[in-house]
Structure formats: C-alpha cells, structure tokens
Write a structure and sequence with these properties.
The complex is a heterodimer of chains A (126) and B (326). With 126 residues, chain A is mainly α. Chain A contains three helices and four strands. In chain A, helix 1 (19-43) packs antiparallel against helix 2 (57-77). Chain A is elongated, with a radius of gyration of 20 Å. Classes of the chains: A mainly alpha (126), B alpha+beta (326). Chains A and B meet through helix 1, helix 2 and helix 3 of A and helix 2, helix 4 and helix 10 of B. Chain B: The chain crosses the membrane at residues 31-51, 80-100, 112-132, 262-293, 305-325.
Chain lengths: 126, 326
C-alpha cells in the first residue's frame, strides 16, 4: 500500500496533491482545533455555561472537538484511511464500544455514590 | 501444493492458506491490536478519574487554578498556556514522525534520518515539560490547612485572591522534630514536616483581619465557597488539623487527594509511554543510520514505531481534555 494514499479530507471537500501536503494540512487543522479549545478554556464564555443533557455546553464542545482531533490523528497520521474496512472496524468499533460501556458504568456509579454522600448519610468533618 | 488449481478454481483457494484479507503485515496488525489494548488501559484510568470526579462533583479542584505556571514567568497566572504548548509539541512530533514514514515509502534515507531525529527531540521536550509540571505540582504554591475529615481549607483576602501561607504565618517555636530512622526505632520514619503548625496558622489568621477561608465546596456557578470571617475562624479552630504544602499521594493542597493521585497516575503512565516511545525511536533511528532498512528495501519498522508514537499523541489529546479542560 506504499504509494496509494487517499488524499481527500472532509469527505472530499479538501484534496491534496501529495501525502506530504496532506500531513501539513491536517497539522494546520489540528492546531486550529487546539487553539479554539485553549481560547474557550481560558475565557469560558458565559453563553456556553448552559446545561445540555446534564453537562455544560462548553464541556460538550471540548469532548466533541477532542473526538474530531482523535479522528484525524488516527485516520491521517496513523493511515487508518488507507487500511481495509475489516481492519478498521476490528480496531475502531471494538475500542469505541468497550470504552463507551466502561465510561457509562463508572460515571453512573460515581453519580450514585455522590447522591449517597449528598443526602447526608456521611459527614466528613465532626 | 499443486499449481494447476490456481488458474482453474478460485473457490478452493480461499481456504488454501496464504490469504491476507486485511492486507496488513503481521507486525503492523499486532501493533494495532496492542494499541487497542493499551487504549483500554488508558480509558480505564480516565473513566476511574471520571468516577471519582462524579463522586465529589461539588468539591473537585478547578484545574485552571491548579495549573497556572509557565517556566521563567514567575508569579503570573497563565492557566493552560503551558499545557497547550506541550500538546502542540507532541502534535508537531507526530507530524515529523508521519513525514519520516512518508520518506520511508520513498526509500529516502537522509530524510527519514532527519525526521526521526526531530521526532526524538520533540519527545524529549515533552517529557522534560512533564517533569517540570510534576515538580511544580509537588512543590505547590499557596499552602493550605487540612481538616480532621480530610477537607482542604485555603486562604483568600477580601477580594477573593489567594493568599500564600508564607505571607501571613510566622513560624513559632517547634518542639517537634522530624522522626528519622537513625534517631528512634530503626523501622519508623516520616516525611519532612510542614514549615508551620496549625497553631502558627491560627495566630497569623487572627492577626490579619482581611483574611477569609475558602472551602472545597463549589457554589452554583462553579466557584469555590468563601466563608465569612466568623465561620472561617470557627472552622479553622475546630477542624484544622494539618498544614499541607504541595501535593503527594496522601495530602494535596489543591483539594481532594484523589485529584493528585490521578494526576500522578495518568500523566505518569502517559509520560512513561512517551519515554518508552523515545527509546524505541532512538533504536529505530540508529537502525536507519546504519542502513538496516536500506538493505531490507523496506522501512516498515519506522511505520510500526510510528503507529505507537501517534497513539501516545492520541492519548495525550484525551488526557488534555479530561484533565485540563473539562
């Protein structure tokens, strides 16, 4: 698969002439995303503090941007875009499923323990 | 096996062996599956962090107030700037790595050598920055008092700015000396003692009327609760137990000890990955220089170690979000 890289990103919106160019293009994109995260993290705009599905909108934005970055690192830097469908699914689907499952269970449990503490059954300074 | 079958029958060939449905070499595939398992280890750590954070959701330290330092810029509050720099260094070294892989596809030894070298430098800058972050975190800056129940009391002035212990506490006479193994039971020792006792802190606090105490609890809008003067004095006198300066695995001046524990474990485990990545890169670098892959006519080893290196970058992207941003 040495020379046959797929040279399009954003579903064909941006096309690059060579693999080297694509790498720099992806770097620029990742840097912009990181810059946005840092700026939002420093200024924390009041408008993004509203709760959406139990979490601040700002935090949702951070998590989505992180997943976007992870996608481009995996697809373009790790060349997942050029691998066969089978390998891609074996790696990506397995991981995502297990991580979602683990996260759901632990966060659910954490919220429950918080409620037990919060209702005053446990006091920490006496 | 017989060679005649190949041309006439395609059905039987599927099970005849030698097929590569995933079109990836053994080594590369195993690197991918190692990455899957390692990703699960890291997500275990991060999910456990999430668990502890949800458990103390109304009292968790605010990362922006903890990581405010940048080397050579003393006394300035610059949240996130240095971590953003570290993130950029790691992404940059990922780019040089992928450029090395690309040069490897063109069998261009000089370029592979250069890009591998730059990748190693980037990795070393990152590990060095992380060591500096750890040192700053362990040293602490303001100091705090821990209560009987293990909660942290921090000090602020009337405007809500943090006040360091050394700015208002005068160390009194200390009778208590550090217990060392050489001057007592040989199997009993202890860590270094804090510079002040709780009594010193109470004296200093009483002498400065503008001081208030800030507890761990978060208010509705995500700020730490500040007590009134009377409540502060009462809290300090009845519950204050231990002066904490900096952070270790048991005590942590920034808030819940779990925060420090996870900081050490997650960034430490990641730093260890970066360190091993640098070692692997150095080995591959020397192989490139010696012409091993030139003779082999294939730079696939660079590709495999590159996969690992990108994975380390990928993990950092998540650590950055969940530890410093969210």
């Amino acid at each position: 698969m040495a020379q046959d890289h797929k040279l399009e990103i954003f579903r064909g919106l941006v096309k690059f002439k060579s693999n080297t160019q694509k790498i720099w293009g992806v770097l620029i994109f990742l840097s912009i995303v990181t810059a946005i995260e840092v700026i939002l993290g420093i200024y924390k705009p009041e408008a993004l503090m509203a709760k959406v599905l139990g979490m601040k909108l700002l935090n949702w934005i951070f998590i989505i941007l992180t997943i976007v970055k992870a996608y481009y690192i995996t697809w373009d830097f790790m060349h997942m875009r050029d691998e066969t469908k089978g390998l891609r699914r074996a790696v990506v689907w397995t991981t995502i499923f297990l991580i979602l499952y683990l996260t759901f269970i632990l966060l659910q449990e954490g919220g429950y323990v918080f409620n037990v503490y919060d209702k005053g059954y446990i006091k920490s300074d006496f | 096996m017989s060679t005649t079958v190949v041309t006439t029958e395609t059905g039987g060939k599927t099970w005849g062996g030698g097929n590569e449905p995933l079109k990836a070499s053994y080594g590369k595939m195993m690197m991918w599956f190692f990455i899957v398992s390692d990703a699960l280890t890291f997500s275990g750590f991060l999910a456990a962090y999430g668990f502890s954070r949800f458990k103390f959701i109304d009292a968790w330290p605010i990362a922006d107030e903890v990581f405010t330092h940048v080397p050579f810029l003393h006394g300035q509050e610059l949240p996130m700037i240095y971590v953003a720099f570290m993130t950029f260094v790691l992404i940059m070294s990922s780019v040089t790595m992928v450029l090395a892989v690309d040069a490897g596809h063109h069998l261009n030894k000089a370029k592979v050598t250069l890009y591998m070298f730059l990748t190693i430098i980037g990795g070393l800058i990152f590990v060095g920055s992380q060591a500096w972050e750890w040192a700053t975190f362990i040293k602490g800056d303001f100091g705090a008092v821990e209560t009987k129940g293990g909660n942290i009391l921090q000090f602020v002035d009337a405007e809500g700015h943090r006040v360091a212990l050394k700015d208002f506490v005068v160390a009194g006479e200390h009778d208590r000396v550090q217990q060392e193994r050489k001057n007592g039971l040989w199997f009993v020792g202890e860590g270094s003692l804090p510079s002040y006792t709780v009594e010193d802190v109470i004296h200093g606090f009483e002498a400065n009327d503008n001081l208030l105490i800030r507890t761990q609890e978060l208010t509705e809008d995500g700020q730490k609760t500040v007590l009134t003067r009377a409540e502060s004095l009462n809290q300090l006198k009845t519950n204050g137990k231990l002066v904490v300066e900096g952070a270790n695995l048991q005590h942590n001046e920034y808030g819940s000890p779990l925060f420090a524990d996870f900081f050490f474990f997650i960034t430490g485990f990641h730093g260890f990955h970066v360190f091993s990545g640098v070692v692997l890169n150095i080995i591959i670098f020397f192989n490139v220089v010696l012409g091993t892959y030139e003779k082999r006519k294939s730079y696939e080893m660079v590709e495999k170690v590159g996969l690992y290196w990108h994975f380390v970058d990928l993990v950092w992207v998540f650590v950055f979000t969940f530890f410093y941003l969210v």
